[in-house]
Specification:
The chain is mainly α and about 525 residues long. The protein is built from 18 helices and no strands. Helix 1 packs antiparallel against helix 4. The N terminus is likely disordered.
C-alpha cells in the first residue's frame, strides 16, 4: 500500500478544472497519539515484569514446581480481564457518556490501579485489586481510543486514516519498547514500588495530555440509547418474531446456548470462575449469533433494511474475529511462556529474561513503515493485492511458524543443550511480522466495517477476541494437569512445555486456513462518517 494516496478529479472535471484540495490531517490527532504512547508505556511497563515479579516475589509461598503454572494463570487471567472490559467501555460510551468522557473517567481508575501495585507490592489482596483496576481502566478505554481516532476523520480526509492508524500502532510499540527495556532493570535495581510506580506516573501524564485536547476533538454523541434500530434490538426482533405456519428455530438455538451457558457457569467449582464465565460468554455469542442469522429476515419491516444488513455485517465480522482468537493465544504467551523459556537459556548476567520482549516493539516500529513504503507497493507492482483480510490470514499463519521454531528450541533445551537466548530472536521476528499483519490491520478494519452507531461496541468485540485467545491458554494449561493427558504427552517423548508449543502452532495454522477460506466470500465495507 502506497503512502501517497491518489485523488482522481471529480466526474465531469476537465483538464482546466482546479485540482481537488489535498486532504487535511486533523490537528487534534497528535493529542490522541501522545496519550496512547504514554498509556502504552504504563501498561507494558507493568505487564512485562508481572510474570517475573510473581515468580520472584509475590508467589514465593507457593512450592517452586507449582509456581510457574500459577504465575502463568494469574498473568493470562489478568489479560482476559483487560480484553473483556472493552465490552463495558464500548457499551457505556455508545449508550450513555460518549467516547471522550468514558476514556477520561476510566483513565483515572487506571491511575488508581497503578498506585495500588506500587503501594501493595507485598500484599496479595491489595496487589490483585490493583490488577483488577488496571484491567478495568485499560480494557474499558481500549476500544474507544482507536475508534475515537476514527471519529476525527470524515469522507474528505479518510484517505489519511490508515496512516494515522499505523502511527497509532507505531506509538504503542514505541512506548512498549522503552517499557520492556527499562522496567526489568528498575525492578531488579530499585524494587517493585519504583518499577510499578513509574508506569503509574506515565498513565497520569497520558490522562493530562488527553484532557488537554478536549476543545479540539470531534465528539460523536452516543446514539445507541435513542436508536430503535440498534444491533441488539434488531437481534431481539429477529429471534422473537413469529410467522404464520412457521416455528422459531433461531430462538430455540439461542435458548439452547443460554442453557449451555448456565451449565458452564455451574462448572465454576471444577473449572474455575474465569474459564467457566468465558466459556459461557462464547456459548451465548455462538448460539445467539446462529439463531439470529437464521431468523434475521423476520426483522425486515420492523427495522429498515439498512439496520438489518448492518446486523448481518456484524455477525459476519464475529466469525472472522473468532478465527483470529488462536493468534492471540500464541501472541500473549510471549510475556509468559517465552519468558519462562528464556530463563532456561544462556545469557549475560546483566540481561534479564523479560528484556527479550523489547525486540517485539522494536521490530514493529521498523516493520510498519517498511511494509507501507517498500513491501506493500512492491507486492502491488508484482500484481499481488494485499487487502486487510489477506494480511490478517498471513499473520495468523506466521504466528504458527514462530511457535514451531520456539518449540524446536524447547526440544533443544530439554535435550540438555546450552541454548543461547539469541536464538529467540528468530521466533520473535516471525511473531512480530504476524502481529503487524493481524493487529495493526485489524484496528482500522474493525472500525471501517462497523455501522456508525456501533463503532465502540464492534471494536470491543475485536478486543474480546484477545480474551477468548487467552481462554484457550488457560484451558490448555488446565488440561495438562490431568493424568491421562500427562501420560499421553510422556508417551510422545516430549516435555509438556514442548508439546504445548507444537499444539499451539498447529492450532494457529488450522485457524489461518479456515480464515482464508471464509475471507474469500466476505464483502469489505467502507463505513466512515460523511
Amino acid at each position: 500500500m502506497s503512502l501517497t494516496p491518489s485523488h482522481p478529479l471529480p466526474a465531469g472535471a476537465g483538464a482546466g478544472a482546479a485540482p481537488a484540495a489535498a486532504p487535511k490531517m486533523p490537528s487534534q490527532v497528535p493529542f490522541i497519539i501522545a496519550n496512547e504512547g504514554c498509556e502504552r508505556f504504563s501498561f507494558y511497563g507493568m505487564r512485562n515484569i508481572l510474570t517475573v515479579f510473581l515468580m520472584t516475589s509475590l508467589l514465593l509461598a507457593i512450592p517452586e514446581p507449582l509456581r510457574k503454572g500459577e504465575a502463568k494463570e494469574i498473568f493470562h487471567t489478568f489479560v482476559i480481564g483487560v480484553y473483556f472490559f472493552p465490552l463495558l467501555g464500548g457499551w457505556l460510551a455508545d449508550r450513555f457518556f460518549g467516547k471522550y468522557n468514558t476514556i477520561l473517567w476510566l483513565s483515572l481508575v487506571y491511575c488508581v490501579g497503578h498506585a495500588c501495585l506500587a503501594i501493595f507490592e507485598n500484599n496479595l489482596r491489595g496487589f490483585y485489586t490493583g490488577l483488577f483496576l488496571i484491567a478495568l481502566g485499560s480494557g474499558g478505554i481500549k476500544p474507544l481510543v482507536s475508534s475515537f481516532i476514527g471519529d476525527q476523520f470524515d469522507k474528505t480526509n479518510r484517505s489519511l486514516a490508515q496512516k494515522v492508524f499505523d502511527a497509532f500502532y507505531w506509538i504503542i510499540n514505541f512506548g512498549s519498547f522503552f517499557a520492556s527495556l527499562l522496567m526489568p532493570i528498575f525492578l531488579d535495581r530499585f524494587g517493585a514500588s519504583v518499577a510499578f510506580g513509574i508506569p503509574g506516573v506515565l498513565m497520569l501524564l497520558a490522562t493530562l495530555i488527553f484532557w488537554s485536547g478536549r476543545r479540539r476533538y470531534v465528539h460523536v454523541p452516543p446514539t445507541a440509547a435513542q436508536d430503535p434500530h440498534a444491533f441488539l434490538k434488531v437481534v431481539r426482533t429477529a429471534l422473537l418474531a413469529r410467522r404464520d405456519g412457521e416455528g422459531r428455530p433461531g430462538l430455540i438455538i439461542a435458548a439452547l446456548g443460554a442453557m449451555l451457558a448456565l451449565g458452564s457457569l455451574a462448572m465454576s467449582p471444577q473449572w474455575g470462575f474465569v474459564i467457566a464465565f468465558c466459556f459461557a460468554l462464547v456459548l451465548l455469542m455462538f448460539f445467539g449469533g446462529v439463531g439470529a442469522w437464521i431468523q434475521l429476515p423476520r426483522a425486515r419491516g420492523v427495522h429498515p433494511d439498512e439496520a438489518v444488513e448492518g446486523v448481518r455485517t456484524v455477525l459476519r465480522l464475529l466469525v472472522l474475529f473468532a478465527l483470529v482468537t488462536p493468534f492471540w493465544s500464541l501472541f500473549d504467551q510471549k510475556a509468559s511462556t517465552w519468558v519462562l523459556q528464556a530463563d532456561q537459556m544462556s545469557k549475560p548476567e546483566w540481561f534479564k529474561s523479560s528484556m527479550m520482549q523489547a525486540i517485539n516493539p522494536a521490530l514493529v516500529m521498523i516493520l510498519i513503515p517498511f511494509n507501507n513504503v517498500v513491501l506493500y507497493p512492491l507486492l502491488e507492482r508484482a500484481g499481488v493485492k494485499l487487502n486487510a483480510l489477506r494480511r490478517m490470514g498471513a499473520g495468523i499463519a506466521l504466528s504458527g511458524v514462530a511457535w514451531i521454531v520456539v518449540g524446536g528450541l524447547q526440544l533443544w533445551i530439554d535435550g540438555g543443550q546450552s541454548v543461547s537466548i539469541v536464538w529467540q530472536v528468530l521466533p520473535y521476528a516471525l511473531l512480530t511480522m504476524g502481529e503487524v499483519l493481524v493487529s495493526a490491520t485489524g484496528l482500522e478494519f474493525a472500525y471501517s466495517q462497523a455501522p456508525l452507531a456501533m463503532k465502540g461496541v464492534i471494536t470491543s468485540f475485536w478486543n474480546l477476541s484477545v480474551t477468548i485467545g487467552n481462554l484457550w491458554v488457560l484451558v490448555a494449561n488446565a488440561s495438562v494437569k490431568g493424568e491421562s493427558v500427562t501420560g499421553y504427552i510422556q508417551s510422545t517423548g516430549t516435555s509438556v512445555t514442548a508439546f504445548q508449543m507444537f499444539f499451539f502452532a498447529g492450532f494457529a495454522l488450522v485457524a489461518a486456513l479456515l480464515f482464508a477460506l471464509y475471507a474469500r466470500g466476505y464483502q469489505l465495507q467502507n463505513r466512515y462518517r460523511d
